[in-house]
Fold:
Amino acid sequence: MLIPLSRRGLLAAGAGALAVAACAPVARASNELAVYKTPTCACCTAWVDHMRAAGFEARVNELPTLRSIRSTQGVPESLASCHTALIGGYVLEGHVPAEDVRKLLTERPEAVGLAVPAMPLGSPGMETPDGQREAYETLLILKGGGTRVFARHA
Structure:
């Protein structure tokens, strides 16, 4: 049986619910990373090692192709790289540095995620024995498919 609430009772119940919500602990950014890669990609494994060394917990999933995962996550083909990862409601495409992922999870911009297209030398997982490095940008993938520079790396 339902008991009708007076206006005063309804206001008191609403105020109580707000007080409980205000005292609830704030959810911390997740460090759990779901990585999608093809079975034969060695640089993807090196990127996963970089992320694990930075404190992320990576669960690796091998797929024959990544086109469908990128498509469902809103990553334009022009930003495609060799692996795709999901963390905290965002997608990561390619060799995104761990520090950029931490910044993304702290700032929480309205975006699809981050991408480092084209597998630049010296990016995490793309290190060379002679230390060769290319300057590259981490791009913020905006809703609708556009991008803007999120970080620059020399």
